[in-house]
């Protein structure tokens, strides 16, 4: 199905075919094929045939300004990757559908756009990653219909083996003849279903790519914070970005849908859940980026612009601020120095009171740190208690529960510590003086953090810059009001206006972080208590957002009503959570939040180093993807209970279970229900061919396995 007219990605309303936008038609047709696991007919034949059919139809309608070349690549190879502890991946005859759009006179350089059409088992894979391939088909059509020739080629890679860890991209970038011409790439991924696509990786270095996104993207959504979180390894995931970066030495941009990660990699990831607005938005951004890069002189000379990192972040989705990291470093140190000079002047003048001022300043500094530590400990104790009583993830479907439980506990403890300090330690001290001192102490903490994070080299230090620069400006503008008795309305209004920018941005950033991380807690394994992680996030948010409001505790007459109200909310929520009223999961057809359970019927045979069978059995391997394990399943399926929990076979690789990825350390809790043996049409044959003792005291085995 092809759009008529100027193309769907143009201005105005989408062109329609059969009542649907073209990318939506592509998406529906690809997902209608069903799950597309690598090696299956659905992936290797049906989807490939569909893509070729659509590409050929696009080719027939292209203008004379362009040439279109199509190639089906079936590479074989292997590579080692430092991911999940490191492993070597081997692949054979996987499938890539590669399309090159270039000007009629040819092109020496190219920009790559990458998606993958394979999916994990048991999911239509609409968001991951059929929607990206659908958008790429429509972009190919739009560019090919343009009468204006491009300066460089655009290569569209529809890769057929990403889910089994990035194999098709490796086969392309290391073996395909067109790969040598690529100077930059855009990788389209998903960690959720629809919504806005987040730029969460760029580079390495090559700041001109970020500038290209800043200039071209119509609906920007990008954050260097997301980049540094992802590249830290906290999130156990990876994308084809790594392959192009590490094996192709090509810079690029990584984008992913992040909304509604609850149904990512599940049967609910269907085309009807991806809104047309999300597809339109992604298409607008990617088309604009590809057109910009394919007509840019910088692409051909990208090696001249390769050095230096860049600080980048969008402002409420309206525009992106980006500047070189070295400029950010200088700016950060200057702002920190100004803050230190201001604080030094406050503390050491007049000189005859310097020691007394210094003592009071560091007392306030210590009290803030003490309140933060005690707040963290309190929230973690509650989280551990919830985990021990078997009520983990009570907030998974009802996020407000986490705010009422851990948020109120954090705020109560924070207010309580400072209220007690005010009552017993500062009982004869002027309130206005205390408000002034605690504001300065918070400013000192943020200034130290700014200097430290900048020294480490993290671009995310710009957040600290906001929390130093704007409060310092606010203080300088209303320093007289700080000395007036009581918190007047004028003072409060001016204070809030001065703090508006850092607080607004922090709330926006918090939304992004919780949008990404909350669903991940439902698939983060059986070893990490998700309530502890989420409580930590909420406490961190509380610390940040309260840092310049602690001084108000010392300015108001009493915090008793606030403490009683918040404590009541906490206790009621705690009782309700412990009663089990908040079931973690939801089967709501409109907004499901399912529990992830992995089941695999299998035969197991354990061989010794001589190839002899030492143990064999058959059964259903059951694995819960979250901390709750099977506790919510046993009441409904009594046969699945802790009596069939299987211990780790420490002497065997991966605990004796057939993990296709080395993630066994994340899933130590496994259940094994004895079941009848499987009798494949072609029996499995295993034979040890050679055995060799290496100089480093390990055994190298060569063996042969056949069957299907």
Automatic annotation (TrEMBL):
Q: What is this protein called?
A: Endoplasmic reticulum metallopeptidase 1
Species lineage: Eukaryota, Metazoa, Chordata, Craniata, Vertebrata
What membrane topology is annotated for this entry? Answer: Multi-pass membrane protein
A biological process term (GO) from this entry: proteolysis
Which family would the database say this protein is a member of? Belongs to the peptidase M28 family.
Start and end residues of each Endoplasmic reticulum metallopeptidase 1/1-A TM domain: 358-578
Q: Which Pfam families does this UniProt record tie to the protein?
A: ERMP1-TM, ERMP1_C, Peptidase_M28
Instruction: Give the primary localization class.
Output: endoplasmic reticulum
UniProt GO molecular function = metal ion binding; metalloexopeptidase activity
Endoplasmic reticulum metallopeptidase 1-like C-terminal domain ranges (all copies): 592-707
Give Gene Ontology CC terms: endoplasmic reticulum membrane
Which species is the source of this protein?
Answer: Chrysolophus pictus (Golden pheasant)
Q: Where is the signal peptide?
A: none
């Amino acid at each position: 199905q092809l759009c008529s007219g100027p193309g769907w990605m143009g201005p105005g309303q989408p062109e329609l075919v059969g009542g649907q936008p073209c990318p939506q038609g592509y998406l529906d047709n690809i997902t209608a094929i069903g799950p597309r696991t690598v090696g299956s007919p659905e992936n290797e034949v049906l989807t490939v045939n569909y893509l070729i059919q659509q590409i050929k139809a696009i080719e027939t309608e292209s203008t004379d300004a362009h040439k279109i070349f199509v190639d089906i690549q079936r590479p074989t190879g292997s590579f080692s990757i430092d991911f999940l502890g490191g492993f070597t991946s081997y692949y054979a005859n996987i499938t890539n559908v590669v399309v090159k759009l270039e000007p009629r006179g040819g092109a020496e350089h190219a920009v790559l756009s990458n998606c993958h059409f394979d999916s994990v088992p048991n999911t239509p894979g609409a968001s991951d990653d059929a929607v990206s391939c659908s958008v790429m088909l429509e972009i190919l059509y739009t560019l090919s219909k343009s009468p204006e020739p491009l300066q460089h080629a655009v290569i569209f890679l529809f890769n057929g083996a990403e889910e089994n860890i990035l194999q098709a991209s490796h086969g392309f970038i290391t073996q395909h003849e067109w790969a040598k011409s690529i100077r930059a790439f855009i990788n389209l991924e998903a960690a959720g279903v629809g919504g806005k696509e987040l730029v969460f990786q760029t580079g390495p270095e090559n700041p001109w790519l970020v500038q290209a996104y800043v200039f071209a993207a119509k609906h920007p959504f990008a954050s260097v914070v997301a980049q540094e979180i992802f590249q830290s390894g906290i999130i156990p995931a990876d994308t084809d970005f790594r392959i192009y970066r590490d094996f192709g030495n090509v810079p690029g941009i990584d984008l992913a849908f992040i909304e509604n990660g609850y149904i990512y990699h599940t049967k609910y990831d269907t085309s009807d859940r991806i809104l047309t607005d999300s597809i339109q938005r992604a298409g607008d951004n990617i088309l604009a980026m590809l057109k910009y890069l394919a007509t840019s002189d910088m692409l051909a000379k990208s090696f001249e612009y390769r050095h230096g990192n860049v600080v980048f972040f969008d402002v409420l989705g309206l525009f992106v601020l980006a500047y070189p990291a070295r400029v950010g470093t200088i700016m950060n140190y200057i702002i920190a120095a100004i803050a230190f000079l201001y604080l030094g002047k406050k503390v050491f003048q007049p000189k005859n009171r310097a020691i007394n001022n210094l003592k009071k300043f560091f007392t306030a500094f210590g009290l803030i740190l003490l309140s933060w530590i005690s707040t963290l400990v309190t929230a973690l104790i509650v989280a551990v208690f919830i985990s021990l009583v078997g009520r983990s993830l009570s907030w998974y479907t009802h996020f407000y529960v986490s705010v009422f439980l851990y948020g109120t506990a954090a705020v109560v403890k924070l207010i309580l510590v400072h209220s007690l300090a005010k009552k017993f330690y500062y009982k004869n001290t002027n309130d206005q003086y205390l408000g002034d001192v605690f504001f300065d102490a918070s400013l000192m903490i943020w200034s130290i953090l700014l200097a430290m994070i900048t020294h480490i080299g993290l671009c995310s230090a710009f957040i600290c810059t906001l929390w130093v620069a704007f409060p310092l400006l606010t203080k300088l503008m209303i320093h007289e009001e700080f000395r007036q008795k009581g918190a007047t309305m004028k003072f409060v209004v001016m204070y809030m206006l001065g703090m508006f920018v850092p607080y607004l941005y922090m709330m926006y950033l918090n939304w992004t972080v919780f949008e990404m991380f909350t669903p991940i807690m439902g698939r983060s394994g059986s070893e990490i208590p998700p309530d502890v992680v989420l409580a930590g996030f909420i406490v961190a948010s509380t610390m940040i957002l309260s840092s310049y409001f602690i001084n108000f505790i010392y300015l108001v007459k009493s915090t008793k009503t606030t403490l009683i109200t918040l404590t009541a909310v906490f206790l009621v929520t705690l009782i309700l959570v412990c009663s089990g009223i908040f079931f973690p999961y939801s089967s709501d057809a409109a907004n499901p939040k399912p529990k992830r359970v992995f089941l695999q019927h299998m035969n197991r045979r354990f061989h010794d180093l001589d190839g002899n069978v030492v143990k064999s059995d058959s059964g259903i391997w059951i694995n819960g993807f979250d901390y709750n394990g099977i506790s919510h399943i046993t009441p409904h399926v009594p046969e699945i209970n802790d009596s069939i929990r299987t211990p780790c076979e420490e002497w065997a690789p991966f605990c004796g279970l057939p993990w296709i990825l080395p993630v066994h350390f994340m899933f130590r809790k496994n259940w094994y229900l004895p079941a009848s043996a499987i009798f494949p049409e072609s029996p499995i044959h295993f034979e040890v061919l050679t055995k060799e003792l290496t100089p480093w005291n390990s055994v190298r085995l060569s063996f042969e396995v056949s069957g299907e």
